[in-house]
Amino acid sequence: MQYISTRGLTQPHTFSQAVEAGLAPDGGLFLPDSWPDISGKLGDWEKLGYAELAAEFFTLFAPDIPREEWHSLTQRAYERFDSPDVAPLRKLDEKTYVLELFHGPTLAFKDFALQLLGLLYKRQVEHTGKRLAVLGATSGDTGSAAIHGCMGQEGISIFILYPNGRVAPLQERQMACTGASNVYAIPVPGTFDDAQRVVKQTFGDTAFAATQHLSAVNSINIARVLAQCVYYIWAWLRLPPEARGGVEFVVPTGNFGNVLAGWMAQRMGLPAGSFRVATNQNDILYRFFTSGEYRQGDVHPSYAPSMDIQAASNFERYLYFLLGEDATKVREVMEQMRSGDAVNIPSGQTAMKASRMTDAEIRETIGRIYASYGYVMDPHTACGFTGMASDRVSVVLATAHPAKFPDVVQSATGAEPTHPTLEALKSKPLETHPLEATPEAVKAFIDAQHRA
Ligand SMILES: Cc1ncc(COP(=O)(O)O)c(C=O)c1O
Ligand SMILES: N[C@@H](CCOP(=O)(O)O)C(=O)O
């Protein structure tokens, strides 16, 4: 299997090459050039543990890495999760399940891909001898998960840009209190979208990217999305058989990587029913899926800060399919979006459902679900608990631990959620490297800190 770019101007890459690059040199996103059919494998996969399932899944997409090595990689990636199930599926009632994706080292779903990606980077450094500069933007969770996947690793420096003052205080501590010498937590002015734009512009300097061995750690990296497909398969296999076919996955969404992973699993033959994109008040995706118009607006800080996003990177992968896998059309539409114009796209048969929530509704929902089930959830997960389907089972993806966002959770439930990992961070010194939000500033900083 090879990996092609959504913009059609990049030579096909192997899995390892696509992972190393992250973003395709033509500015597009990598996708597999063919899709395996997993429907016949689900019966065998039902007996596997999480790490084994992930290994079997990846052997279909990355034949350049031997199967035994995949098993060793996934075993190591998921051994630090604090639940034996890795991704436990909790039943709230006959119609409602929660897939808990916050049992990894940084207490957010990003650990599923980033623990593995850290090991893939390590392997890459060992195989090629090249020192990698890993670069990413975060609205809070990707940054800490990426840092925990890479910190202390020989041959890797990691640079994470985040919007100054717009991530939760504990998320910032997870990035800036590691004490690791290869980690650079970089607050920049503006929003997550500004940080992500600067990261993409930095990759746009292909000579710089090549000289510094730059790799993208956001879900623009195809390994991120593939790793996230696995927990949809896992959850589907854990549902009662009669609930599986129609199941609706409800996915708190910002950069569109998480829900795209589920949709891709369905495209490979996972017989899931439907997907609902759950947004906060930054509702560009809600507006798209309900009207067909993709129009960027201003970002407004919310109780679910990791989803304060208006320019969802992975939407480009979805667009590629909506536009009939026509890379020329993707280039045209992406250019239209870049110049700030609204874009109208027929959503057609592949349309997902969508919902949105204001801050007041998020707080009310956390309180209501706690009162009804005794279940405490974080504000991103709460965005999923509206407009539940009445005719089928729903699985809501719980994307972060409530203790990462103690203020809103405490105001909704009356009790402060805590976690020992986060408590330990409170007394540690913060080390940040503030920069201007420009590719020039970022390149100069990487140049000064990273020995390629
Ligand atoms: C806690 C949490 N929930 C949901 C999301 C949305 O995920 P995605 O960006 O993959 O759509 C994010 C990040 O955006 C997040 O950090
Ligand atoms: N919510 C994310 C935003 C970046 O998403 P990614 O999946 O593209 O890395 C975050 O926590 O940073």
TrEMBL record:
Transmembrane segments: none annotated. The keyword Transcription regulation does not apply. The keyword Endoplasmic reticulum does not apply. The modification N6-(pyridoxal phosphate)lysine is found at residue 110. It comes from the Bacteria. It is an enzyme of class 4 (lyase). Gene3D superfamilies: 3.40.50.1100, Threonine synthase, N-terminal domain. CDD domains: Thr-synth_2 (cd01560). Its cofactor is pyridoxal 5'-phosphate. Its EC number is 4.2.3.1. One of its GO terms (biological process) is threonine biosynthetic process. Residues 95-388 form the Tryptophan synthase beta chain-like PALP domain. Pathway: Amino-acid biosynthesis; L-threonine biosynthesis; L-threonine from L-aspartate: step 5/5. InterPro entries: Ser/Thr_deHydtase_PyrdxlP-BS (IPR000634), Thr_synth_N (IPR029144), Thr_synth_N_sf (IPR037158), Thr_synthase-like (IPR004450), Threonine_Synthase (IPR051166), TrpB-like_PALP (IPR001926), TrpB-like_PALP_sf (IPR036052). Belongs to the threonine synthase family. This is Threonine synthase.
